C-alpha cells in the first residue's frame, strides 16, 4: 500500500476517457489499495483512478465509515436535485456550487469483479456523480454555478469535502 501523487488541474490525464477494467490483476488490486490510502491521506471523500494517473474505470468513495470501490461504474437511475458546494483533490482548496441528482443508483463490479448495485443519497450521490465524471475526463468546475472560490474565503470550511 502506498500513497500516490494526486494529479491536478492542467495535467492532461484528467481530461481523458478511461478504459473499462476487464479482469482483476495484482496490479489493479494494488492500485485500489493505493487509491484508498491516497484518498484518506488527503482527507478526501472519493477518488477516481485518473486522479492518480491511471486511465481505468475505477472509483473509491467513503463519505463516512463506509469505504466502497466500484469498477466500471454506471449510473442507472437518478432522481431529485441538490445544490451544494463541491471540491476536488485535483483542484485543491477550491470550491463551487454544483447541482447534482439527490439520489442515484449505480451499477458496476466489486473488487472480486462481481456485479454490484449501490444506492447513494445526498453527499454519497454527489460523490458517485463527481467520481464517475472523472472517468470521462470531466471535472466539477465545468458545472459550477457562479464563482469558484478559495476555501480560505469560506465561513464554515469544516463542512466541505473534496473528491
Ligand atoms: Ni474530483
Question: Brief overview, please?
Answer:
This protein has 163 residues and is of the alpha+beta class. It is 18% helix and 32% strand.
CATH homology superfamily: Peptide deformylase
**Major β-sheet, in short?**
5 strands, antiparallel
Beta content comes to 25-35%
How many structural domains? 1
What is the CATH T-level topology?
A: Peptide Deformylase
Q: Give the name of the CATH architecture.
A: Alpha-Beta Complex
Distance between the termini: 20 Å
Reading off the top of the CATH hierarchy, the class is best stated as: Alpha Beta
- Annotation field: number of helices: 2
* Spatial ordering of strands, largest sheet: 1-2-3-6-7
Please, could you describe this protein's structure?
The protein is α+β, with helices and mostly antiparallel strands and 163 residues long. It has one domain (12-162): Peptide deformylase (Peptide Deformylase, Alpha-Beta Complex), CATH 3.90.45. It contains two helices and eight strands, in the order αβββββββαβ. The strands form two sheets. The chain has a five-stranded antiparallel beta sheet, sandwiched between helices. Strands 4-5-8 form a three-stranded antiparallel beta sheet. Strand 2 and strand 3 form a beta hairpin. It is globular, with a radius of gyration of 15 Å. The protein starts with 25 loop residues before the first helix and ends in a 13-residue tail after the last strand. The relative contact order is 0.21.
Amino acid at each position: 500500500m502506498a500513497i500516490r501523487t494526486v494529479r491536478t488541474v492542467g495535467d492532461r490525464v484528467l481530461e481523458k476517457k478511461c478504459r473499462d477494467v476487464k479482469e482483476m490483476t495484482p496490479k489493479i488490486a494494488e492500485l485500489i489499495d493505493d487509491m484508498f490510502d491516497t484518498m484518506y491521506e488527503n482527507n478526501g471523500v472519493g477518488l477516481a483512478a485518473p486522479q492518480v494517473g491511471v486511465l481505468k474505470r475505477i472509483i473509491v468513495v467513503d463519505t463516512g465509515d463506509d469505504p466502497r470501490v466500484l469498477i466500471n461504474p454506471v449510473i442507472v437511475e437518478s432522481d431529485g436535485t441538490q445544490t451544494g458546494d463541491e471540491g476536488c483533490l485535483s483542484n485543491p482548496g477550491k470550491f463551487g456550487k454544483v447541482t447534482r441528482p439527490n439520489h442515484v443508483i449505480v451499477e458496476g463490479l466489486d473488487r472480486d469483479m462481481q456485479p454490484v448495485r449501490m444506492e447513494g443519497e445526498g453527499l454519497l450521490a454527489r460523490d458517485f456523480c463527481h467520481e464517475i465524471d472523472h472517468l470521462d475526463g470531466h471535472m466539477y468546475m465545468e458545472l459550477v454555478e457562479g464563482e469558484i472560490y478559495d476555501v480560505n474565503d469560506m465561513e464554515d470550511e469544516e463542512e466541505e469535502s473534496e473528491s
